[in-house]
Amino acid sequence: MAIMITTHGRYLTQIEKSTILFPINCYLVREDDGLTLVDTNWTKTADAILAAAGQLGAPIRRIALTHVHGDHVGSLDPLHQALPDADVLVGAREARLLARDFSLDVDEAQTKPRGDYPVITTRPTGVLQPGDMVGSLRVIASPGHTPGHIAFLDTRDGTLIAGDALFTFTGIGVSGMFRMRFPFSSMATWDKATALGAARALTALQPTRLAVGHGPVLEAPVAAMMQVIDAAA
Predict the structure, then answer these.
(1) How far apart, in Å, do the first and last CA atoms of the chain sit?
(2) Looking at domain 3-232, does it have CATH number 3.40.190.10?
């Protein structure tokens, strides 16, 4: 499984792991005090993430999660072991899923959460609410793929790290949209209507760059985001 490391702009470094099914991204975001790691990729990626941080010449100070599917938290435990002083941050709603509480709130779509939720022993050091700041990253609610999915907007340059709220592998798509070459977004999405609403809200932020869990980083993505939202509606 090949690893590719690519820098976008001044702050964002993409770590892409190619698998036989689809590519998986996680991201290092440069801050004044070191790096924020957004998501941890699939299993057996910890060494590559630590090596990428070493190449950037900065320590990983915090790990922030968009959601807790296995391809986003798969390397959390070994990274926590290697970085015991790094904060581990997850959305407050998503923290329940990390603890394997799959109950639903009365105001949520009453559909069982879908996708892979592995057993993770690492517990978060903090939980995030919409509007919170993680370094320079603002927490944005983006439920739909999972009940507690969040995204991160870099307030310095407008980069949106959207997790699985959207994807760009096989072309840009909204979470839950079916693609023959990439059916997994549809298969793993909890509620498609909620996901579509989240995609609209993310587009309204007018991001300058879109970084997702699966597929290439897009520059000036707003027109493409609006077009695919119209197609999904």
Answers:
(1) 36
(2) no
